[in-house]
Amino acid sequence: MEFEKYNGLGNDFIFIDGTGEAVELTPQQVGFLCDRHFGIGADGVIVVRKADGADGYMHYINSDGSLAQMCGNGVRCFAKYLVDHGMVDASSGRLLAMTLAGPRPIAFDVDDEGKMTVATVEMGQPILEPAEVPCLLPGASLGRLGTVACEQAIDSPWGPFAFTAVSMGNPHAVCFVDNWQALDDGLFTDAERKGLDTLRIDEVGAWYESHGAFPQKTNVEFAEVTPEGVRMRVFERGCGETLACGTGACATAVAACLTGRAERAVTVSLKGGALAIEWGEDGVVRMTGPAAFAFSGTIQL
Ligand SMILES: N[C@@H](CCC[C@H](N)C(=O)O)C(=O)O
């Protein structure tokens, strides 16, 4: 099978062309492809398909073989793939990507060689109604925003964490930590240096990913406010910790705005780099960031 490898801020994906012959992968095959020792290695697989009324359909599969509705870093890479393959006119600077979560309009910049560098994706309106995220947390009424599960405490073996539930087409549980010192020592790889960087996110993230409050599981973000904006780490549903998550950055920006921690436009810094997120007055979240091609190859399935 031929493949190409792309990434958005180090959140990396194996692209497979499914525009001709249908490509159907079993969860075992996806697991093998994404395995960093025995396979190619990636956070997920994107099968590129044709779409009626759009420039292409992004079929996104997490590294554990589960299907996800949307992937923010993935959709910027998808745009670059379509440009690289001449499937859209590079000079138009615009395309429409179809996803399981619906259409996502994208504006992009190209360099002197016509290669896409940066894209701004219209990520749609965040879904805040708890039942639609979906999450079973009680919601508080937030005026014209309706009922939002905002900073609702969920207990864990390390004590309670307060989550805001936001769907960007896929579910996210965002926790802002304002006081790292108050947290259990066991949550950190180094109790002398409690903070976002030393948080044992593999353990605490995995615990909340499968919590009963999230019937479709959830992506889990831990975040803090910085002078530059917001900094976060993410434990992705169906994958584990990744260097970046586009939908997670959008959900975190929305949660920051809802809880009075940030303005509607904010820079979200992740392990792999920064994304510019804006929750527009029209309710639509826009995400701007890079996408990069790494290499291509052939693998025996
Ligand atoms: N890395 C992605 C999100 C990928 C899907 C996610 N793990 C899920 O299951 O919802 C992004 O950049 O948004």
From TrEMBL:
Keywords: Amino-acid biosynthesis, Cytoplasm, Isomerase, Lysine biosynthesis. GO terms for cellular component: cytosol. GO terms for biological process: lysine biosynthetic process via diaminopimelate. Substrate binds at N11, N62, G72, N73, N170, N219, E236, R237, G246, T247. Signal peptide: none annotated. InterPro entries: DAP_epimerase_AS, DAP_epimerase_DapF. Its EC number is 5.1.1.7. SUPFAM superfamilies: Diaminopimelate epimerase-like. It comes from the Bacteria. It is found in: Cytoplasm. The record marks H172, E236 as: Could be important to modulate the pK values of the two catalytic cysteine residues. Pfam families: DAP_epimerase. The active site is at C71, C245. HAMAP family: DAP_epimerase. Catalyzes the stereoinversion of LL-2,6-diaminopimelate (L,L-DAP) to meso-diaminopimelate (meso-DAP), a precursor of L-lysine and an essential component of the bacterial peptidoglycan. Homodimer. Belongs to the diaminopimelate epimerase family. This is Diaminopimelate epimerase. The gene is dapF.
